[in-house]
Amino acid sequence: MPVALKRVYEPPSPDDGLRVLVDRVWPRGLSKAAAELDRWERDLAPSAELRKWFGHDPARWPEFRRRYRAELDDPKRQSSLAALRRQAKTDRVTLLYGASDDVHNQAVVLAELLNEQL
Fold it and tell me: For site-directed labelling of 53, which of 9, 67, 70, 99 has its Cα 20 to 30 A away?
């Protein structure tokens, strides 16, 4: 079952399955109750340095994707990735993000990686 993407500000749906926030910082103006998360995987988010460097600049997207994938190769992150991958083999997994850009954000890269591995 492919990993899905959804902005965390969108209303939850039963079709979301496991709802996993993949941002390092909590989304502004959203209560934890309204988010209806199953998990918050802060450690799978890009490093603070990479996130600040990227700044959601589409011109930096190709390099951001390359650097973020390199960060995801870190052994400390591999166990979290493996757990999401196992879950996605049997259940729907929806990665949630706070960015307003639906195309240029870390959840897109993470979903690509997980879907490649499924």
Answer: 9
Q: What is the 8-class DSSP label of residue 23?
A: -
Q: Is 3 in contact with 111 (CB distance < 8 Å)?
A: yes
Distance CA 25, CA 70 (A): 21
Provide the residue-wise pLDDT of the chain in tens; the chain has 118 residues.
689 999 999 999 999 999 999 999 999 999 999 999 999 999 999 999 999 999 999 999 999 999 999 999 999 899 999 999 999 999 999 999 999 999 999 999 999 999 998 8
Please report how the helices 61-72 and 75-90 are oriented relative to each other, as an axis angle in degrees rounded to 10: 90
Domain count, the chain: 1
Residue that the structure tokens 């706070």 belong to: 98
Residue-range definition of the domain harbouring residue 34 = 1-11+21-42+106-118
